Amino acid sequence: MTYRELPMIDVKEVLRRWLAGHSNRRIARETGIDRDTAARYVAVAKELALPNDRELTEAEVHEVAQRVQARPLPDRSAEWTEIAKHKARISEWLERKRPLRLSKIHTLLNRDGIEASYDTLRRYAMQELGWHKPTPTVRLEDPPAGQEAQVDFGQMGRLLDVETDRQRMLWALVITLSLSRYQFVWPTFSQSTEAVCEGLDRAWLFFGAMPRTIVPDNTRAMIKDPDALNPVLVAAFLDYVQARGIFVDPARIRSPKDKARVENQVPYVRESWFDGEKFTDLADARRSAEHWARKIAGARVHGTTRQVPREQFASLEKAAMLAQPTELFDVPLWVDGAKVHPDHHIQIAHRALLGAHDVPAQEGASSGRQDDGSDLLRNGADQDAPSKSAGRSLDGHGRLPGRQGGVCPAQRGCARREGKRERRPRWHVRRAHRGRAVAVDTHASGLCSSSSLRQVRRRTCRSRLPERARLRRRRRRAHHSDAQVGNQARTV
To answer: Quick one: CA dihedral 216, 218, 219, 224, positive or negative?
Structure first.
């Protein structure tokens, strides 16, 4: 037999009508409550001898409801009782740093002779141990319109790269506007600074506007030092945000709730856009992602705001945002420790060899460093942009693609044109240190200083031979001297 449990307001209404002298039939007809249900509450009120000359208090109404609705709990099953005996073991398995799966716990219990179904174990873990208990969600207040966009990378799956003809992991840069929840997806094979800047520019062109602040994840493409109070941006990314006039407020390390509006969109993008689809190449995936963001994700009713993101963006957010960029950003290449070669050429990041015919020789042509020991800091975004060295400008001749170092022979030094290979002073000193011959042009090799020449002469004249070689030399000398003495004796 089933019972209907009435809320407190309905119980109070039944008792109020009973005190007014209404019959059970009339109470049921006017309140919509079953007549037997109303009769049970009236019978308990008569048993408690409640006064009918005044209004009942909340405590008296609560007492009536408790007596009617209180029922004995059903007895636990034998499986539940058997599982309860191993509560400590199950709790320890679930509280480990790497907790066991509940199916594995069920296997271990069955191995110990405990006959219980998985469903019973699951109900016990949820009710008694709080396993998979949902955590409460506190919704934060949305920022002002056009103020913030949250950025995050998400792993999608594998896609054929037509350039390398192999399967590569595809990532998606997801940009979500915090107020309207309008979002843009940019598929890419890499998580480099260049890919981030290109994806952000494509997002601003997609929105037709830019937010004032972005909240990115602590990826190395954007954040160099992910400090909670004073994060340091990558130099190239700092150039980008300065050129666009936007601010960066990175999320804290291992704090996905700092960017929750984009964090929970990554599984949605993967399941709704990528899964089950077939793309011919990366360009096809990008076209599909833009169409999906505009026609599907942007046109749905958002589960939290209960609004259509595209309509909210057009009516509230777009007018408060910054103007979109007119062209894509040319990402600079910032390198600490660029090398200055003896022929006055600057090498950057093992990929570019820049000609600088007017770099003074004393600026590290022989050692690859400045006089004060500091390396050159090179911005390689513009091939014709001069590098900076101690307040002076060093003109460059451009760079070759990939790892093809060097510039045209007409821009090289005289020694390069003649086919000679210049050596640094340290090379000659080391060669003399090993006891090898040294015959170089002191002017071409940078050995003009008297100290360098003295080192070469000293090492050449006093070479450090191995101990065995010294012993053999001494023995040969001793044998030679003995032979000379013998010859002189025979002559006499």
So the answer is: positive
